[in-house]
indole-3-glycerol-phosphate synthase
Amino acid sequence: MEGVVSLKGTILSTRVSSQSLKPSNWKSQFAIRRSFPCVSMDSHEINPSICARAQKLDSRDAVTTVSPISDSLEQAEQALKIKDWEAAMLHEEIAASQGITIRRRPPTAPPLNYVGPFEFHARNEPNTPRNILEEIIWYKDIEISEVHLPPLLLKERSPLDALKKALDSAPPTRDFIGALRAAYQRTGLPGLIAEVKKASPSRGIIREDFIPIEIAKAYEKGGAACLSVLTDKKYFKANSSCTDFRLCPLLCKEFIVDAWQIYYARTKGADAVLLIAGVLSDLEIRYMVEICKTLGLTALVEVHDEREMDRVLGLEGIELVGINNRNLETFKVDISNTRKLLDVRRLEIIREKDIIVVGESGLFTPPDISYVQEAGVKAVLVGESLVKENDPSQGITNLFGRDISV
Ligand SMILES: O=C(O)c1ccccc1NCC(=O)[C@H](O)[C@H](O)COP(=O)(O)O
């Protein structure tokens, strides 16, 4: 079925496939999917009666000449704008009440003549990112939302329907937590998640001669229990997807803001995904953890401070918690953060819930490993200190003070 729906400047193709639902910006897409029940979230198909109307209105001239419909479309468009804006405000308000300072999207002023519960919000907020994490998150939203990056964007190339179909033939996931536990039992040292990353916002280029598969193989040879692969291209210069590796269990290290990314990661061979508590609300974490479970994925839920730790420990179904020693807003790294967050009370909850805690970032020497192990971690996630070694396999031996591959 061909045609267009014209909502003022917004042109929606009505060819019945998710690839073709192409609003001019992410806000209208979000609003249309949420506010028109006729556009199903799963198939993104458009109700035939809307299509019929759309075909009558397949040019902007038609919108202006058929006035009753154009009036109602304009009203609908205004209502959508308001709902969309209110939903964004509500999301920010819930996130802020949970101590989340990362704003999901640039703040926008209320729609014209807006009167409502959020009337006085977002008037004086800066609409440039306040820190690097916020910048990454804002860009991620654009990257996955079919906007601005022609010719075909991520969601457009791989709509949810197609991802779900691809999963029918995907190989089963490997047991990420099982691999960490086994390594801990075998060596008596924290299980290693060795990170494949070329660059980072805080360190710039970490390794020039970066051949991901070679590094991954060296990690496995050196005794890594699991791999972590940074897949962000813009900020971490990733040039591989998880699919390139079928070695030990794999964490897809992405900045997840949309459940679609979880499905995508699964089709790309991930066994685990990262959920950042400083970005996602409690409800989002619960929802995404559920999705992970249905897909056989492990969720590594990352925290940085006490408040995030307590939020996450209070949620059901959490099995793996990462304490990042790096403040992703300021880049400051302090491994005593792991000890600070693992006080007696929290360690008791962790033990009761049988959660594995991962110490992340800033680990360079055997004393660093001993320090976080004594604090209570049973796994560590290490990037820089291994990636920059000529022989990353030997780097693992140096980091642990002994060969952990045997
Ligand atoms: O590392 C960064 O600069 C950074 C900036 C913004 C968001 C995330 C960032 N890093 C992710 C990580 O925390 C690390 O890749 C990971 O924990 C390994 O850390 P390290 O061993 O210190 O390389």
